[in-house]
Known about the structure:
A: 115 residues; mainly beta; 48% strand; B: 116 residues; 4-stranded antiparallel β-sheet
Amino acid sequence: GDSVTQMEGPVTLSEEAFLTINCTYTATGYPSLFWYVQYPGEGLQLLLKATKADDKGSNKGFEATYRKETTSFHLEKGSVQVSDSAVYFCALSGDRSGGSYIPTFGRGTSLIVHP
Amino acid sequence: DAGVIQSPRHEVTEMGQEVTLRCKPISGHDYLFWYRQTMMRGLELLIYFNNNVPIDDSGMPEDRFSAKMPNASFSTLKIQPSEPRDSAVYFCASSITGGGRNTEAFFGQGTRLTVV
C-alpha cells in the first residue's frame, strides 16, 4: 500500500538557518503530495501541495518539488524563523488510476528554531 | 465557511464513562475522517466515511469505539466504556473529490481527551 517516510526529528536550528526535511513516498499511480504544519495545540493545516511530477509547491517561504524519479518531496526554507517551530507532516493521496483517495501521512518531524 | 468544527475542545472523564466527540465537516465535502494522535503512535486513521457511509473502520482499536454519520453535516465518535489508554487528541477532517483526485484534508482543531 501507499506509504510516506520522513526524517525523524527533532530538527533544531538557529534563526535564519537553512531548513531541509526529507520525505520519500511509495504509491501507485500519480499521487498528489502535501506538506502540512501543526502548531502547538492546533490541528494540521495545509502548508503546500503539488499534484504532478516536477510541480513546485510554495507558501510562506517554504518550497517542495515533486520528484517522481526519486519519489521524493523534500521541504525546504532558506531562512527559518522562531515562529516556524512546529511539527511538519508529509502526506500523499492517490488519483483515480489506482491510488487511494485516503490521505497517507508520515510520522511528522518536529522543528525547533532558537533565536 | 468556518472550517471543520469539533466539540468539545477538551474532555476530562473518568474511566468507564461514555464519551462522545462531535464533528461538523465543511459543507459540500464528501469524505470525513477520524484520526487519533498520540506521542507514541503518531497520527492514526480510525475510520472514514464517503457520502455519509462508513467505508473502512479497520483502524478502530476496539469494539468500545463506534462512529456514525447520520447526515452530511454531522458525525460522532463514541467511546464506551472509556479507558485511560484512550487519552489522546482526536481529530476530524474532511475533503472533497474532484477531477479524479482528492483535495487536501481540512482538519478541525481537535478534541483533547483525558481519561482518569
